[in-house]
Amino acid sequence: MEDQPKFPDLTDAERKVLEDLMPDEVSEIITSGIKRRHFLKLITFTGTGLLAVHLLGTEQLLARSTAATPLPPIGVENGVNVTLKVNSQTQKLLVDSRMTLLDMLRERMDLTGSKKGCDHGQCGACTVLVDDRRVLSCLTLAATCENKEVTTIEGLADGNDLHPMQASFIKHDGFQCGYCTPGQICSAVALMREAKNGEASYVTNNVRQTGKNLKLSNEEIRERMSGNICRCGAYPNIVDAIREVHGDKAVAEVWQFADGTI
Amino acid sequence: MRPFKYSNAGDPGTAIGIVSANTGAKFLAGGTNLLDLMKEDVMRPAELVDITRLKYADIEQVPGGGVSIGATATNAFTANHDIIRKNYPLLSMAILAGASAQIRNMATNGGNLNQRTRCSYFYDVNMPCNKREQGSGCGALKGINRNHAIFGWSEKCVAVYPSDMAVALAALDAVVHVEGPQHAKRTIAFVDFHRLPGGQPEKDNNLKQGEFITSIELPENDFAERSYYLKIRERSSYAFALISVAAALVVDGTRIKQARIALGGVAHKPWRASVAEKWLTGKEATEANFKMAAEAELKNARPLEHNKFKVPMAGKAIARALQGAMQGGIYGLENDTEG
Question: Which of A142, A165, A234, B76 could potentially form a cystine with A104 if both were Cys, beta carbons 3.0 to 4.6 Å apart?
Answer without folding.
Answer: A142
